[in-house]
C-alpha cells in the first residue's frame, strides 16, 4: 500500500468561483493544492482531479467513477472533496470498499472567500483520513459522521446526525 494520501477532487463549493456579471457560482480549478501549499503541509499526498461538478449534478455514473478511482488506487488513505448537497449519497455509494479509510469533506463557503469553512474542513478531513480505521466517513465542521446516519439540514445549513430506522420487532 502507498503511504501517501490520495486526494480526489470532484468540485463542489470548495472549488466554486463567483462571477459578478452573472451573480452565480461556477466550479473552478481544485483549490486543495493551494490550501496545502499555504498551510505548509508536509504529508505526502497526490491530487487526482476527477471532475468539476456541483454535487446536485452528480449522477450514479459519477459515483461509479469515484468508486473505481478509489478501488484502483494503492493508497490506504483517501480524501474526497465533494459538494455538500449529495455528499451523503456518495458516502453510502462508497460503502464496502475494504482496507481503505475514505473521508469525504466539502464546504458551505468557497475556499477562495476570505472567510470560509473550506480550509478548516480540508485540514480536519486530512487528519481524519490519517487516524480513523478503514471505512467511509464524512468530516464537516469539526464532526465525523457515518454517511448512513447523517443528512444536510439545508435550512440550518449544517449536517445533523439522524437515528437509524428501528428494526421491526425491536423497541
Automatic annotation (TrEMBL):
Substrate binds at residues 55, 84-85. Transmembrane segments: none annotated. GO terms for molecular function: asparaginase activity. Residues 6-153 form the L-asparaginase N-terminal domain. The active site is at 13 (o-isoaspartyl threonine intermediate). InterPro entries: Asp/glu_Ase-like_sf, Asparaginase/glutaminase-like, L-asparaginase_N, L-asparaginase_N_sf. This is Asparaginase. It comes from Oceanipulchritudo coccoides. The lineage of its organism: Bacteria, Pseudomonadati, Verrucomicrobiota, Opitutia, Puniceicoccales.
Amino acid at each position: 500500500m502507498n503511504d501517501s494520501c490520495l486526494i480526489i477532487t470532484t468540485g463542489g463549493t470548495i472549488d466554486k468561483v463567483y462571477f459578478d456579471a452573472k451573480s452565480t457560482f461556477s466550479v473552478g480549478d481544485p483549490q486543495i493544492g493551494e490550501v496545502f501549499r499555504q498551510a505548509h503541509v508536509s504529508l505526502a499526498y497526490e491530487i487526482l482531479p476527477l471532475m468539476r461538478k456541483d454535487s446536485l449534478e452528480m449522477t450514479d455514473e459519477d459515483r461509479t467513477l469515484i468508486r473505481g478511482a478509489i478501488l484502483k488506487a494503492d493508497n490506504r488513505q483517501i480524501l474526497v472533496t465533494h459538494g455538500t448537497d449529495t455528499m451523503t449519497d456518495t458516502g453510502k455509494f462508497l460503502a464496502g470498499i475494504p482496507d481503505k479509510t475514505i473521508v469525504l469533506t466539502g464546504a458551505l463557503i468557497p475556499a477562495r472567500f476570505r472567510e470560509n469553512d473550506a480550509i478548516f474542513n480540508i485540514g480536519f478531513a486530512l487528519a481524519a483520513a490519517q487516524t480513523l480505521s478503514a471505512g467511509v466517513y464524512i468530516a464537516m465542521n469539526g464532526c465525523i459522521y457515518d454517511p448512513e446516519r447523517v443528512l444536510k439540514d439545508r435550512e440550518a445549513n449544517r449536517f445533523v446526525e439522524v437515528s437509524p430506522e428501528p428494526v421491526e420487532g425491536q423497541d
